[in-house]
Amino acid sequence: MRLSTPMLSVAVGLGLTAAALGTVPAAAAQAPQPARAPASAGSLAGAGYNGSGEEAKANQAFFDAVLKSVAEKRAANPKAAAVTVVYNASAAPSFSTQIARSTQIWNSSVSNVKLQAGSGADFTYREGNDSRGSYASTDGHGSGYIFLDYAQNQQYDSTRVTAHETGHVLGLPDHYSGPCSELMSGGGPGTSCTNPNPDAAERARVDQLWANGLAKALAEVDQH
């Protein structure tokens, strides 16, 4: 990890680089490239890879940034009926179906936090070509994004990729050595794994994180 701009960026990914899959669609080739985070993690993951210390820190940084953003808005509107994480998917039009499906999956899986498209986003989705594959990135100040790589989403089940990366938004770390039934096992089980759903332990962990983590974040916001 290094500092290349005034902001420190970290990135976390599905755990596998995008393999060459033949011709990339013309729209993909012409898509503008997002700014790359200066550090990446999990780019060579396989069944025997279980994540690096740097990657674990990146996962936590992304969650903390989103949590802080949500807490600040929650403090300003304490009567809101539900804790909502707002996203903007306008920069990833090719994946609108997968993003909508991922949102539906997570919203039906957990009760303490909900995902919703809208303005004033806590994070955004982007698309393009990146040799590192798909990943989640943040500058640590609430302006995080999920990058969806074209080639990787051709090789792996695209809804699983999207739901996995969204899992980082909700606080889950990678667990590449896990079975296909675990969403956060990412690319570990191989390309044949198409499961886009979190298992019972992952669902319970997200609910726990958003009950306890949000309370802590709100307390910190109130102190400032």
Automatic annotation (TrEMBL):
State the UniProt keywords alphabetically.
Answer: Calcium, Disulfide bond, Hydrolase, Metal-binding, Metalloprotease, Protease, Secreted, Signal, Zinc
The record's disulfide annotation reads 180-193
Q: Which Gene3D superfamilies does its entry note?
A: Collagenase (Catalytic Domain)
Residue positions binding Zn(2+): 164, 168, 174
Q: Which reaction does it catalyse?
A: Hydrolyzes proteins with a preference for Tyr or Phe in the P1' position. Has no action on amino-acid p-nitroanilides
Q: Which GO terms describe its molecular function?
A: metalloendopeptidase activity; zinc ion binding
User: Which residues bind Ca(2+) per the record?
Assistant: 157, 159
For this protein, the record's SUPFAM superfamilies field holds: Metalloproteases ('zincins'), catalytic domain
Cofactor, how bound (note): Binds 1 Ca(2+) ion per subunit. Binds 1 zinc ion per subunit.
* Any matching Pfam family: Peptidase_M7
As cofactor, the record names: Ca(2+); Zn(2+)
Record localization? Secreted
Protein name from the UniProt record:
Extracellular small neutral protease
Q: Which organism is it from?
A: Streptomyces aurantiacus
